[in-house]
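Hi all, posting the design record for the shared folder.

TITLE: backbone redesign
STEP: 1 of 1
STRUCTURE INPUT:
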């Protein structure tokens, strides 16, 4: 903590900034604010005394002038932050760690959180409704290891955009209304939230650098209908109840899309507006039968489909002309005729472990193929492979000698 004038100090635990005092500068990093590697900062500020009774300071008027506080760690502080009876604006508010904390009684005077709100390692915390009165909301929200928490309540003001949102290990969370009004996020991360059925509260989100959803009980993602731009990557992994991605139908720009181990996913139902895509990975989605939503795609850096045994054709990729890397592994594909418009694979083509694949004639229109590996396709004749690669495409259009191994013998 920076050294302040004596008349700006109240107690030994938290720092007040009345009108005559200097407010925190941009160099003061918020609790939970991303560090250079993108992870929330772990700074816990000054050491505080043992836990004490919070008392009951009653309600305060949040509409008037607020006293500014650098940092509160609750309930680790020994002093009662609401003892003065004044409404407070806190730069960084950290709640936890505390195994016995069940609610936020004692913080009724907190009317604003200017930068960072961190709720961490509070296994018994069941309610944070005291925070509903907040009129200035932070730009960084981190909630981690709060398995008893069921609701992130809506605040009187939206999180400051672009916000850093990291919600993890919240086994009983059913509502994320606290995100209402958020329009942009540097990170939108929800991990290990099996009771969360939808993303109600995220309807205003239009752009994000990262969207990462893992092991969440989502049944739909319709709340993301306004999302148009994901500049880094979009991930849905281990969302076992999710059957489609129709909520992403408004997406216009996506650098990387990663979909893995979504056992109930049957169709994409999204990406209709994408004509170009960085990378798309579909992995271990055994019920996926179609790639609807990719019909407008003409160019991609990488398409990787593996562990999608129910996918028997690629008609949605009929417009695809150029791809840098194409990986088809452990699919139900029987042919590649739907790729007839494809002219260029600059990097690598891998066909591996596609037991139903009998023909690759759809690749005969290629004018350039950088590197190719065809391995372990037990219904695909080696002679047919050589005929397509070496004769129809021609060795002069291959960037390197093809690797052809463990396919069906010539008939």
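Okay, here is what came back for every position:
SEQUENCE:
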């Amino acid at each position: 903590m920076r050294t302040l004038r004596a008349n700006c100090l109240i107690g030994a635990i938290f720092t007040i900034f009345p009108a005559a005092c200097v407010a925190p500068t941009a160099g003061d990093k918020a609790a939970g604010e991303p560090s250079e590697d993108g992870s929330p900062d772990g700074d816990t500020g000054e050491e505080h005394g043992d836990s004490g009774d919070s008392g009951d300071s009653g309600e305060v008027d949040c509409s008037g002038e607020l006293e500014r506080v650098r940092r509160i760690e609750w309930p680790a502080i020994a002093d009662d932050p609401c003892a003065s009876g004044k409404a407070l604006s806190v730069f960084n508010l950290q709640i936890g760690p505390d195994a016995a904390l069940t609610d936020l009684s004692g913080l009724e005077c907190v009317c604003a959180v200017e930068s960072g709100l961190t709720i961490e390692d509070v296994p018994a915390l069941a309610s944070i409704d005291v925070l509903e009165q907040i009129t200035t909301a932070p730009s960084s929200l981190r909630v981690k290891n709060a398995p008893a928490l069921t609701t992130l309540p809506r605040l009187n003001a939206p999180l400051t955009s672009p916000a850093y949102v990291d919600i993890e290990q919240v086994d009983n969370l059913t509502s994320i209304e606290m995100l209402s009004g958020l329009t942009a996020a540097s990170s939108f991360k929800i991990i290990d939230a099996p009771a969360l059925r939808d993303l109600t509260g995220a309807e205003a989100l239009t752009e994000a650098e990262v969207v990462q959803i893992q092991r969440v009980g989502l049944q739909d993602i319709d709340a993301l209908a306004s999302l148009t731009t994901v500049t880094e990557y979009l991930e849905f992994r281990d969302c076992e109840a999710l059957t489609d991605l129709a909520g992403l139908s408004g997406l216009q720009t996506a650098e990387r899309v990663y979909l893995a181990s979504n056992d109930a996913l049957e169709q994409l139902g999204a990406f209709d507006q994408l004509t170009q895509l960085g990378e798309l990975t579909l992995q271990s989605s055994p019920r996926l039968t179609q790639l609807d939503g990719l019909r407008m795609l003409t160019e991609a850096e990488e398409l990787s489909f593996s562990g999608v045994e129910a996918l028997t054709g690629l008609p949605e990729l009929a417009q695809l002309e150029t791809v840098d890397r194409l990986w088809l592994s452990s699919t139900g594909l029987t042919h590649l005729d739907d790729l007839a418009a494809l002219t260029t694979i600059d990097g690598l083509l891998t066909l591996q472990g596609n037991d139903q694949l009998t023909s690759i004639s759809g690749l005969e229109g290629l004018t350039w193929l950088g590197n190719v590996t065809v391995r372990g396709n037990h219904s695909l004749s080696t002679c047919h492979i050589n005929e397509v690669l070496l004769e129809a495409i021609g060795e002069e259009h291959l960037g390197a000698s093809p690797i052809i191994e463990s396919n069906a013998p010539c008939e």
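COMMENT: The helical segments are 382-394.
Let me know if anyone wants the other runs.
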